[in-house]
Amino acid sequence: MSNSRWIFQTLILSATLNVVLVGVFFYFLIRDNPLQFSYARKEIIQTEVPSVRLEFLERLPEVSFEHLVELLDDDRKMACGLCICDLALGALATFHDFDVERGLGRGKLSKHLWQYQEKQFFIFPGLRKSDFETLKIFVKADQWPFTVRGLFKKLKTTGIEQADPSLVSFFCRSTEFVLLETLFARTCLPIQRRTLLKVALEGGWENFSSFTQKQKETIDFSDEVRQQLLLAAVDEGSHTAAHLFLVTDASFAVTHLDDDHIKKILDLMPIKTQESIAFAQAIASSMRIEPLRKKAVCRISEYTGNGSADEMAGHFVEKQVPKNLRPVFRETPPAAPNPSKHIVQDGESLWLIARKHNVSLDALMEANQLKSTVICPGKVLTIPK
């Protein structure tokens, strides 16, 4: 009986010590990193501008990045109740795209957004003096202490060819660019990383940011998403996006794009490539509006250099069959041609042949195992039923 009581008391003492040790452990863990256990929503909260002189806020964009970093040590109070270091950090994040969250390593932080005179300013409340010291160390240790938007702007300003290779490499390792690479990796085409960089930069930050934000909310690497991204870049005048669209979605471009986007792609393709020639030939032989077909013929004339646009137009404009022709009677009727075969004539395109035989372009390409719409005169094509 005494042994049972001793064992029971020992178990109670052991459980009590374990609870005390766990409590001490969590106390020091929470004290060193309180935000890790905060369940408050990390979101941007729009608040009224405190009593800060607008002249002071308007001068902050002119302060250099290096001087603002030095002000992170200045904890003097201002009339609004904020310290100078708080406003310096807000200016770094707002005007220089300084990555505060990556510098502190805490994930998403709560932000207060001030709106004044159609401008905005970020404030990060609740930071301690040790946090500002950590951020200063982060600036010295990290070569590119900026957000993805800041990296994008620097690449846009310098250009890919003149940009620091480490900057290009750092941007390409971002989550946003990896999403872009994954989208085009599903095409199974050997698309270079530099090409995707040009598409992103030429398309602008708004298009790139909109794409990445949607992908983070709902992962969708479908053809429709890729086509929308490229067309948005085409709308911004991207030559690279226009060429890449013809590489990845040539058939879709010919059959489904509206006249406005067809015109933009023709305007953005002054360089002769296999894809641009095939696209211009398909548009010139299509049922598109006459001005669009003439533009395509002009492009073909520029690509080939074989005569003027007027001379080239005769190869693509459908000839009208003269009316009121009397039939020619023969003593022996000619042998009927094989309806399942077609010999490609000079000036004919795959699109025009498909129309002549009343079959779809995809069916014609599948029946002849064609991977491109480019065809040579003299080739014998099998016409599907």
Set down the secondary structure blueprint.
Elements: H1 2-32, E1 44-47, H2 54-59, H3 65-70, H4 84-95, H5 100-104, E2 111-116, E3 119-123, H6 129-141, H7 148-158, H8 165-172, H9 175-185, H10 193-203, H11 205-217, H12 223-235, H13 239-248, H14 250-256, H15 259-267, H16 274-284, H17 290-304, H18 309-313, E4 341-343, H19 350-356, H20 361-367, E5 380-382
Parallel strand pairs: 1-2
Antiparallel strand pairs: 2-3, 4-5
Question: How does this model look, in words?
Answer:
Helix 9 packs across helix 11 (about 205-215). Among the domains are: about 45-145, no CATH class; about 145-250, no CATH class; about 340-380, Roll (Membrane-bound Lytic Murein Transglycosylase D, Chain A), CATH 3.10.350.10. It is elongated. The strands form two sheets. It has a three-stranded mixed β-sheet with strand order 1-2-3. The protein has a two-stranded antiparallel sheet with strand order 4-5. It is mainly α. Strand 2 (about 110-115) and strand 3 form a beta hairpin. The longest helix has about 30 residues, at about 1-30. It contains 20 helices and five strands. The chain has helices at about 1-30, 55-60, 65-70, 85-95, 100-105, 130-140, 150-160, 165-170, 175-185, 195-205, 205-215, 225-235, 240-250, 250-255, 260-265, 275-285, 290-305, 310-315, 350-355, 360-365; strands at about 45, 110-115, 120-125, 340-345, 380.
